[in-house]
Amino acid sequence: MLYTETKIEVRYAETDQMGVVYHANYLVWMELGRNHFIEESLGLRYYDMEQLGFLSPVIDVSIHYGKPLRYGKEAIVKTWLLAYDGLRVTYGYEICYADSGEIAITGETKHVCVTKDDFKPVALKRELKDWHEKYLQALEEG
Fold it and tell me: What is the pTM for the complete model shown?
């Protein structure tokens, strides 16, 4: 399976009163992992997509919580391409403790490509052929 690993140092500001990572911060870490995957595994950049007049908003997200992460620990965000159908792309994630490998969360985000001006969905095969080809290639390698 084609994937990347992104190291995260849990900062105090990312924790709640219970001393564990506040749940919404996992979404930020998933974005970091996704961007790293796109750049390292696909050789593409979201920034370049935006410069062409397109965006890729999250249309669905799911997170399943395991062992909570705490301040001062290091986490690893493992990210991979889970699905792609020409219009929608789904990334998979596993965030775990760097030292023990214990799973903090597993999750998925689903995205669609839209025009920047009016948020109309577009087919990557037609509008962003390089992205389409890279997604297909990643699925074949996975």
Answer: 0.95
Residues designated as active site? 16
Closest C-alpha among 88, 95, 103, 96 to residue 135:
88
Residue 18's Cβ-count burial label (10 Å; 0-12, 13-18, 19+) is exposed
What pLDDT score was predicted for residue 106?
A: 98
Tokens of 55: 């965006």
- Rounded to whole angstroms, the Cα distance separating 125 from 121 reads 12
What is the pLDDT at residue 22? 96
CA distance 142 to 78: 14
Residue 141 pLDDT > 90, yes or no? no
Please state, in angstroms and rounded to a whole number, the distance separating the CA atoms of residues 124 and 88: 9
